[in-house]
Specification:
Length: 394
């Protein structure tokens, strides 16, 4: 199919903002493979007897710590000196640049920290990235990972750089998060009729929209979040605004253990920690986790082989070469960037910030279905590996 796909004449350029997550070395070495060679040379010197003796004589103490920890600490200390940098996205089989991946050198924990000491520099880096996007001819920018969280869902960035449309990518993500888990359960042979679906982070931007769309379709829900008042407000809003939800049972709770009654668990929180753990899940449950970093504990894989964890919010763009090793796998990308690609492809400029509007999410879904050549649902993966349904259901 290479060479047969073309970008429309009225199509715009898009950009997607990313940042290092838990490990500066892991993420930077994906962007710059040369860093691995530099680290290899550094580790050889660091672990040599000559260097240890020299260190002892100069510093009057023994050398401690692993090379990777020292290297990681060095990267994090000096990250603020690095400006945002970009990787071009091209149409396969051509040199036409249609977008950019822009990396912001700010760690996840700093973006989540409300202290002005961390938040102000983080916002400055994001604004620098928007200015770089404009210089590169971009019109539509999607906020990846936690850049949306630190900017109040993107609301703080609207109009900051003239000519740049800001989207948090949650509209198309909400549409995918409502539909893909249902398809996965069908593939696994789970009939959700009469069973419960849990939404963890139900009062968040994506979680609330997904809860409303599922209630509209008549599913029984367990809505979980930290604040019970917000959950009660969500429940009332659903019942009042969506007539079809009258057939749904909606249970709200701020206790994570309540999801143990659910056959399907959708994780849509914005925490930097693992929230969902092995003891929280029902036998044979399906967990659809759209969070990054993952809010499902890795211990689930080790302790609960009966549970299936699916990489959530993942779509497939067969014709775009990102020239960067995006998570989870090449061409399988998160829906937030897909939202920007779709808008740029159609030549649309409309800020999509703050909480997701259910009708807006459904509208993005309609647009998505019209452009299956550009973007489509990806094969289901678990921790980056394709799920083999025949083996799973054997």
């Amino acid at each position: 199919m290479k060479g047969n796909f073309s970008w429309p004449k009225n199509g715009l350029k898009f950009a997607h903002l990313i940042h290092p997550m838990n490990s500066a070395y892991d993420d930077f070495s994906r962007a710059f493979p040369l860093l691995k060679k530099i680290f290899y040379i550094f580790s050889l010197i660091y672990e040599s007897s000559f260097f240890r003796i020299l260190y002892r004589k100069i510093c009057k103490k023994e050398l401690k710590g692993k090379p990777i920890d020292v290297f990681e600490a060095f990267l994090k200390r000096n990250m603020h000196k690095i400006p945002p940098f970009a990787f071009r996205c091209q149409i396969d089989g051509s040199k036409k640049v249609v977008g950019w991946i822009i990396a912001i050198p700010v760690m996840a924990r700093n973006l989540l920290n409300p202290n002005p000491k961390y938040k102000i520099p983080a916002m400055k880096k994001i604004i620098q990235a928007l200015k770089l996007a404009k210089f590169l001819g971009v019109k539509v920018v999607s906020l990846g990972a936690l850049t949306s969280v630190v900017s109040d869902g993107g609301k703080d960035l609207v109009g900051v750089v003239k000519g740049i449309t800001i989207i948090n990518g949650n509209w198309l993500t909400a549409y995918a998060t409502k539909n893909l888990p249902l398809i996965a359960c069908e593939k696994k042979g789970i009939d959700l009729k009469g069973k419960k679906i849990a939404i963890v982070g139900a009062t968040g931007s994506i979680g609330s929209a997904v809860s409303k769309m599922l209630a509209k379709d008549g599913y029984d829900l367990i809505c979980v979040a930290r604040k019970l008042e917000s959950l009660e407000e969500l429940k009332k809003d659903i019942k009042n605004a969506i007539p079809e939800s009258k057939e749904s049972s909606i249970f709200v709770s701020n206790d994570i253990m309540s999801i143990k009654e659910a056959s399907l668990v959708i994780v849509a929180t914005s925490s930097g920690d693992s929230i969902v753990k092995p003891e929280h899940l029902a036998d044979g449950a399906v967990v659809y986790d759209i969070t990054w970093p993952r809010n499902t504990s890795i211990e689930i894989v080790k302790q609960r082989p009966d549970v299936l964890i699916i990489d959530g919010g993942v779509l497939f763009t067969p014709h775009i070469d990102y020239r960067f090793n995006l998570e989870p796998t090449p061409k399988y990308i998160h829906a937030c960037i897909s939202n920007a690609i779709l808008m740029a492809y159609e030549g649309r400029q409309e800020d999509q910030v703050g909480k997701v509007d259910m009708k807006g999410a459904e509208r993005e879904g309609t647009s998505f279905k019209k452009n299956r050549e550009l973007i489509k649902f990806a094969d289901f993966t678990s921790f980056g590996k394709k799920i083999e349904w025949a083996k799973l259901n054997a």
